[in-house]
Design a protein that fits this description.
By secondary structure, the chain is mostly beta strands. It is built from no helices and eleven strands. The chain has strands at 4-7, 10-13, 18-24, 32-39, 46-51, 58-60, 68-73, 78-83, 92-100, 116-117, 121-126. The strands form two sheets. Strands 2, 4, 5, 6, 9, 10 and 11 form a seven-stranded mixed beta sheet that branches. Strands 1-3-8-7 form a four-stranded antiparallel beta sheet, with no helix packed on it. It is globular, with a radius of gyration of 13 Å.
């Protein structure tokens, strides 16, 4: 059972930048497609970004395109979410998710396709 650990959340001001990291508690990350989701109070979980196993393919939600970017370093067993120009509406708990796949280029945006989830990290953006 893979457990994912997110880190890097915190309280920032609008227009600041923040970087999140996601690592597995054990094993290697190279066999997994990975995604980031977020959930604000009273709202449904929302897709943010996803990356393929080899890092060559990515997808970002329209709401964050141009501000957020996802990347990975399989040698460091880590997937990153770089968030720039943060807005108060970006305030949410951010979750990392992973799914084992043989497809090196598969990018998954639907939360129901992910089998492993982290506990989440809070990101709060003040105006």
């Amino acid at each position: 059972q893979v457990q994912l650990v997110e880190s890097g959340g915190g309280l920032v001001q609008a227009e600041d930048s923040l970087g999140l990291s996601c690592t597995p508690s054990e094993g290697t990350f190279g066999g997994y497609a990975v995604g980031w989701f977020r959930q604000a109070p009273g709202k449904e979980r929302e897709f943010i970004a996803a990356i393929s196993r080899n890092g060559d393919m990515t997808s970002e939600a329209d709401s964050v395109k141009g501000r957020f970017s996802i990347s990975r370093d399989n040698a460091k067993n880590t997937v990153y979410l770089q968030m720039n120009s943060l807005k108060p509406e970006d305030t949410a708990v951010y979750y990392c998710a992973a799914v084992l796949t043989q497809n090196l280029w598969l990018v998954i945006t639907r939360s129901s396709r992910y089998g492993y989830w982290g506990q989440g990290t809070q990101v709060t953006v003040s105006s």
